Amino acid sequence: MSHKQRYIDYCQTHTVPLFLRPEWLDVAETPWHVLYQEQNECSAYWVYHLDTKWGLRFIRNPHLTPYTGFVFSNPHIDETNQQALIEALWKQGPAFDVLDMDLTLNIQHLPSLSGIQVLKKRSNLLTLTSAEDVYQQCKPALKRQIRKADKHLIVEEKDDISLFYALHIKTFEKQKKRPNISLADYERYWQLCKTLHCGKLFFIRDVAGNYHASLWVVYDEDTAYYLAGGTDHQFYGSGAMSKLMWHAIQTAIDLQKTTFDFEGSMLPAVNKFFQNFSPQEVSYFHLHQINHFLYRWYQKMKG
Q1: Residue 194's domain is classified under what CATH number?
Q2: Which residue ranges of the chain lie beneath pLDDT 70?
Q3: Of 67, 114, 136, 154, whose CB neighbour count within 10 A is largest?
Q4: Secondary structure of the chain: what % helix, strand, coil (to 5)?
């Protein structure tokens, strides 16, 4: 039995995060692979995507897959065994030209990985209790925005990925940019969400029918994830995204999720917005390495 089939069988009887489920991994345009290791009565899988582009081999997260990496048969594995399994799996890993991989939040300790640059990124996790308790934790400025939006904006849940993408694009228009994820990518993942019943698209509009913002949230057994969103820049200040995010959090509470993962942002303004909900800021690992000199030169020229 291949390591990949072993992992697929494992996922049929065990709970794994949404972004590491075989169904989610299959949607990416790049093939995914699995390595397997047993040690000290514990086993581990390294799940990764290997993309070939311009003749180079990339190990990196696919679009719309914020976390990837390692799955352990013992969710309460101690630090020593976790590091030993990661080290053993890493030694089995394939050759690559470029490594850019964001690991799952449960990996808080890494062994020494020769030549690999280990960086820290941040995410924001909100513990979900009752809606009343969570709302009380929100910052006063956020509550004002929600109350403002309550007066004139209406939240809708719609099966309309094209409308979502149109609003997503508008987020970039003010900077005269385009999103680096295509509508086709969004359509594939949205179809999966409908098949697995693991995601919702929310929109918010005014009484004149103008859509101000959109938000896509996905779920696994315990956690709701803010996957993507968009705001029409001409309606900045309407409180739309504040109300929409609050609605998504309330929905997660109704679905009995225990955590809302904003997924963090390295953009200060976005991270500041997330902080208005008083989440806990947590860190996770980003692994980076460029082995090919031409790609290293290309990145340097890009600045």
Answers
A1: 3.40.630.30
A2: 264-267, 303
A3: 67
A4: 40, 30, 30
